[in-house]
Protein 1
Amino acid sequence: MLSRTERRERAVADALRTLIRDLYLERFGVAPERLDGIDLALTARICPADGWALTFDPPLSEQVSGHIEEAQAAHAVYRPGRVWCFRCESAECDHAAPPSAVSVFRAYTSTGQPEWQDLHQAFIAAQDTRVDRLFADAPELVALVQSGRELRHEQLSSFGRSSKTYSILGQVVAGYFQLPRRAAGRDESRRLAVTFQVVETRGRGGRLEVRLNTIAGVSAGIELDDLFAEAWEPWALRARELAARALAALSERAEAARQAARTEEFQSAMRRVPTVLRRLAEFLERGQRQGRRRTRHVEDRRQEDRRPVHKALDDARAAAAGALYADEKTGTLVVCGPQSRAHVFNVEGRHVTSFVLGPGAVDFRLRTRRWRQATPEEAAALKTRIRGSGASEQSTASGAP
Ligand SMILES: [Zn+2]
């Protein structure tokens, strides 16, 4: 037999447990299995003179929410460039990234494991005849919109179907983009397929976030954002930025509506997702058609770029102070010359490589702090070393580093 105290303790624990569980589910959907135990320290005050009034300050639900949000944030599920795998409870497992450069996300399996397929298979499965264009003599970029429903319909609820920590609302699969030679590895075709995935997730404080996750099978060490900035035409970057901006606005509106419990407004914000996806697909396809003429110019410049190393030295000698950058990642110095030429030198003043900068590439690298302006000392030292070195001992290389 339980004593009266024990019975009451049990009733309180049970009520508290249910409250915490429901608060969690309301905010995040299914709890990841590997979410560790959450420590709760609750503050309450009892007032005997006031008929034993019990007060929580802040309110009990707020105290509990604070703790579970912290625990959830520590268990971060959103990783750019990777898909959450509900089966392994990880974004680091082999299932979480595309197995090849032409792979796109197909769907979650019943056990919540991401599955991938080649881009052309996505078009075949959708009975979309544009698949021909992928294999035409002059291949065209094609983009296919897929709904969240079709990407999740095999997934069981016990494996994340209703999870709000990584919920796919839809995606655009597109290709082929052309990989720069340095990123293509042994694949001569240099084809790259990209999955632009719209994901609902939970950020700091349990805030709803709708994000655009760009996923592609590029080899380790190659950053997709670098490829966007340096190798691809500005239309691809712009199309993606427009979509990301539209989603950020939509996300703000939806979160405000959710907090104020304005269901209709919340739903109307979320219904914009398919429109954003359709426009992204259109922009990608149209941009590529219009960009073709410009691409030819870039190719011409790339040919021209394979000039001997003395061009690099000439550019470096003639470079103004503002055209010298330090690459923080590789510890090299970069000289930006005329016609978007960039030449990389190591600290000894030896020419490492030259490449053609894509539009916006310098800005992008400065913004992401990959590059910084070289100091006057660094610039002077480089020029002195270059003066002392003959072109004959230098090596010629092309292709971006
Ligand atoms: Zn996995």
Protein 2
Amino acid sequence: MRKSNKKPVEIKPGAYEDAILGFRNHWYPALFSADVRETEVKTLKILGEDVLLKRVDGQVYAVRDECLHRGFKFSTKPECFTKNTITCWFHGFTYNIKNGDLVAIPSDPDSKLIGNRKLHSYPIQETKGMLFIFIGDMSPPPPLLDDVQFGFLDEDNHVAPFHSEEVHSNWRIAADSASEFNHTFIHKEDELVKYWKQPLPFAEKPKSDNPYEGFILHEGPGPKGFTDAFSDVIPVFEFKIECDGETNTLRSAFNPQTDPGSMPLQDVEGILTLPCTLRIGPWGAEPESGITGSYMHYEWYVPIDETHHRYIIAWGKKVSSEGEALKAEHDIRTRWSYLEYEGFNKSDILANEGSQAAYDEPGYAYGEKENLSRIDAYVLTWRRMAANGGET
Ligand code: FES
Ligand SMILES: [Fe+2]
């Protein structure tokens, strides 16, 4: 881990621009465990690939959702005649769901294809109430630990997955803004900020002449990415807008000088890591009872196709007993999840969807038509790091 001072000219050309369907050879969250019941078949598109999942004897398996015979999508009309198989509805080619092997063809039982052809089978890991899928060609895949948030897999970290939604924006629009300082402008009126009495500035000015300073780089082992530099910015709580002789003063919902807040922004940090993974916190302060935040917010922007990503949200909290885990689960589900999603994350979705049309234009991204200012050091640091596979 070290402090950054690099400038964006070091972005490897093409690599981020080309990652319209995300970066392969990483683990991504696919579904929540509760979404796939025993013997149930589920499908999803992820990084442009159609995947079919099935739970057999408690374990989830995943294969490419496309018959090897003539390409029929199993999910159009899935058929399972034994526990371990998926049969194509079109001509009956039947596959072992556990490894993708072609095991039977009703019209040609002695075919040489049987035993010699297999569907792509995706590695799956189920942990913390979530199903992670490996999209790529590496065998064996790298450890899941490298692709989830710091501390996520810790034994004492109780995780409550609570939201998954398809968002109409390319995944990079969301990743570019993950915990980027100046998008706090969209959160200035959010209910969550008011509930927490969070002295959230609506703008942040870089303190240093070099705005690329201050990020903490994580270059592995473990997740690769960077920690933002909230502590290295000058927060803006009040700003006068003037135009043609008319003025208006913009004010944050809470100004720390006049309204002591629940937790200063400097105590909250956001860590953005590959492949599309944010941890931000601590959150969850309870202003009335003087409790400081101890929850971590996790989110992912999982590429679906060129114009959509799946926005997945979970929260975690360190616990030392089952009772504490139950209490955390209860609090997350009954209070924080609703407030957080309705009163905060919805603004992020609006921002990301509202930017999609521009990024749909050929040549818009990245750097050709955008007009970036020095406040965009965050965006460019992320792009540089992502383009270099986490090498910073
Ligand atoms: S397309 Fe699947 S069996 Fe023919
Ligand atoms: Fe946000």
